[in-house]
## 1
Amino acid sequence: MDKTRAFTLIELLTVIAIIGILAAIIIPTAGKVRESAKNAQCISNLRQIGAGLMLYAEDHKGQIMGRDNNEEGAYTQWYRRLSRGGYIAKDNDGNSPVFYCPLLPNKTGTGVTGVNKYGMRNWIPDASWAGLSSDQKKERLYPLSSIQTPSDFFLIADSIITTHECQYYSIDPGSSGKGVHLRHKDRANAVFADGHVAAKDRAYFADIHLRQAENHTGGAFFIYPEQ
């Protein structure tokens, strides 16, 4: 009768080593595939948001919204205006996944809500912002036609905040509250005024020189000089 041949210790160790090598190759590859898929979804989200902004502008004399006061004095965020107006993913409160980057898990708890939401570039048409009064330091609507280089002027980008929902942000290294978040291999995805989406590095955002204008209700919004 033939006897079944058992594996030797060396053969078993060889098999284990091969499995380990394959795992070392496959696991990082799978992680990169997932990251790539999430990056693609982020780009898709920003394209939809960009399309919504263009539709909004068509209905509002070519202007992109800021964050404005309603009759009760409360603020309406840009994503809620897009959503409630039916320009994108209508859900009334702006909680659709399209407004969140899938690469960064959203956090819950005190002081960390909405950390993976996209942020809007805020604007005021005056380079001498420091001399403005508090009443003048208000978010402004701005016409797309006033943008000199739409292909290099981002409107919405990956952002992060440590206090509440991210809406606006600054490149100021002294500000830890809000910022553009370079979460895609040291780059941030952004949708530009001509509708295209691109990933930009730290140098691009640092050159913009966003400035803090005013604090309100526990948060801050930021302005930058006119192009």
## 2
Amino acid sequence: MRRWLCFILMFGLPVWAAPSMRACIDHYPPFQIISDDGITGESLVALNLLAKLIGHELVIKTSPNFARCLRMLEVGQVDVVAGLILKPKRQAYASFLPYREDSHYLFISRDPDIDIEHYEQLADYTIAVSRHTHYFDRFDQDPDLRKMVVNDLKTAIVMLAKRRFDLLIVPEMTLPSIRRDFAQFNSLFKVHPYRFKPQRIIYFGFSRKHQLAIEPDMLSTTVEAAYEDGLFIKKIEEFTSEHLEWY
């Protein structure tokens, strides 16, 4: 399998022979970055490698938010979405194949007097969460937490600045890009010491209505072999080292 993967990576397939692999991307730095200069990010480099491994041409469809990407995946308007957490409800419309481990999650507030050092303290505050986003099981399933659903991270930061809620949960890897986008971040917001790292994998989600020109067994074997060989994380680490401005 490794020799076969190396052959694809070195020589690929002729462009004229490559069917399309449609993927949805929303703006969620550093995982997915949509700007006037184009589209990039960790998810994109993983998707580019995926397309190369299975002999497809990557076609990106942009979306204003993650929830819309999931809907496009469900109805078959795209073949794949990167950056998913495996949940039973999603398995009704998608199959899942791994490519990297999850990151830490942390909390940000506008009020400097709030101090979150332990999970139990979260129950005292209203917390903004992104629509259709899973964080970690205890947090997602906790009936004692007061949550406010927002469409995207950028909107959430603006709302936090206006004190529309008390706390915002974000992946730790997004923090540098948030600081870059909001010049007054350090004077307006407080990053709390409590962090949580789920022991779980991040997946590609493939629509059960996908139009990929590859047999399911071959798709699974190819992606799982690349994950086990560390090919996806290697590409992500290369992106990280070449784009420190997002970290």
## 3
Amino acid sequence: MQYQVNLKQSEEGYAVWCPSLPGCASQGTTKEEALNNIQDTIQSYLEVAAELNQGIESYYVEVELNHA
């Protein structure tokens, strides 16, 4: 499976995150390191999500946000 990630250069190296997986982010001193790190992070994210969702009914609900 493929996931789109965003890669941004920072003062310390590169930040990388996966917009479709909230909170799934990593970093590296080089582009290559950052991309390798996010692959590991995505794998861990998906494993934890699968564990947390075992035997639990979940569903999406839409909520309306009213602006003042």
